[in-house]
Amino acid sequence: MSAANQTRPFRVVIACGGTGGHLFPGIAVAQEARRRGWETLLLISSKQIDALAVQGHDDLRFEKVPAVAMPSPLSPAMVKFLWRFWKTRRQCLELIRGFGADAVLGMGGFTSLPPAMAGRKLGLRTFVHESNAVPGKANRMTARFCDTVLLGLEACARHFPKARVRVTGTPLRSSLCDPVDAGEARATFGLRGDRQTILIMGGSQGARGVNKAVVAALPGLAAVADRVQVLHITGPGDAETIAPEYAKFPGLTAHVAPFCQRMDLAYAVADVAVSRSGASSLTELSAFGVPTILVPYPFAADDHQRRNADVFTKEGAAIAVEEAEIGEGKLGGLLLELLGDAERRAGLAAAMRRLAPRDAAARVCDAIAEK
Asked: Do residues 144 and 183 both lie within one domain?
């Protein structure tokens, strides 16, 4: 039965825990679903990032399930993994059945596999969303239990040759869609209106290599502190070590935080950004048209961050550099060069906006609702 002709609210379970790249798009889908009168249940993990990301979303229902990343098939840890996986799948069966779900959507990662398997066992329509240009092994496995694979990027379609695929884009949280006052944004972070702002971000879990490169660049940035300032989102693990490095340069206006609940304000004040190339970050940066230097995580599964970056650099929407190329203060030079080239920044911003997904959350919900 379709969502349109149900006598009770349509109910969808959204498995989205583990990273901000899964959580935030999952929340975006839940927000769109609620606007349609649907009921939602979001399955998340016990990780710190999940606890941080769900703050301020009291209108949504969350349930924690264990995250079960699969080790190497030949690893002795496989026995423990199989036991935990079976328990998680059983818990998901109970939650999904108790919720009375009509459909199950996984937003990626191993948090999505047990719910998808449980949904299939219960005879429900099942979906998985892949945001990246190259799918991880978890989504390759999860796709086998799904009716449709939803994609953030067209480039990913070739990796699911036997599946039914649909390109929806990667959903964007509603909080990132509202107009932002630049003055309010600067005041929130204690930034000045007469200086160009550099946004440093590594995704919800941080980026240690990028953080170290920024620390090495601080002397060069401090030398032009009358023209630039920094908004640095370090990730939860690095804030305590990075903040003291900025304190060595009191003349450089900077705001350093482990996490940011108001990324809409952060993007609004950014003249340029430095970011990993996770799909969720790229979606948000493109929505705001932020000229960005991408530093793909060199150890990402299947090298998917470099593939993501390739999609954007080929369209002239971003600059990509290797992590090995930005040490010893070199990142500062790249940033100052970009800040000094208004024409290039404008070109990058325009290309970024062209790649921004349109109504991705609505498209995901449309796919779920269709027969």
From this structure: no
